[in-house]
Amino acid sequence: GERLPNDRFGRCAAEKLAKAQRARKHKRHIAKLHAKVANARADFQHKLALDLVRRFDYIAVGNVSAVKLARIRMAKSVYDASWSSFRNKLRYKAIVHGATFEEVDESGSTQSCSACGSKDSTTRPKGIAGLRIREWACSDCGVEHDRDINAALNILRCGRASPGVGIL
């Protein structure tokens, strides 16, 4: 009989294996958390889209590009809101419930006055720096505007039908 060395491969690898298994467990846990967030977002979007198509016969939505917005500092917020997913759900539910859904060119919708239509206001928000300006007054007619509500009214006006909702 000859004595053979036992390098104990299992014991040497046990620590690395335990660490790897913990990492795998964490990956599964993190994946579950991501799935939970995605499911909650999808549920909220389905409920909101259904509520909107039940209340309005006409829905106008700005054709905002989430990909372009994600290139600037708002990327995390844009991806979290999942705009294109919501737009698709809204379009689908509008078709199913017989509502009219229209995408409208939203360029300049925050900059023109929804009351008088003026674009020459010196106080209007401009460019990326203008994103910080949430409220402004038209220099022509003097009406005070909330940036998002003004844009929604302009998007609705660009659409074809009058009874409806402009999505902020």
UniProtKB/TrEMBL annotation:
The keyword DNA-binding applies. It comes from the Bacteria. InterPro entries: Cas12f1-like_TNB, RNA-guided_DNA_endo/Transpos, Transposase. It holds the Pfam family Cas12f1-like_TNB. Keywords: DNA recombination, DNA-binding, Transposition. GO terms for molecular function: DNA binding. Residues 83-155 form the Cas12f1-like TNB domain. In the C-terminal section; belongs to the transposase 35 family. In the N-terminal section; belongs to the transposase 2 family. This is Transposase. It comes from Burkholderia contaminans. The lineage of its organism: Bacteria, Pseudomonadati, Pseudomonadota, Betaproteobacteria, Burkholderiales.
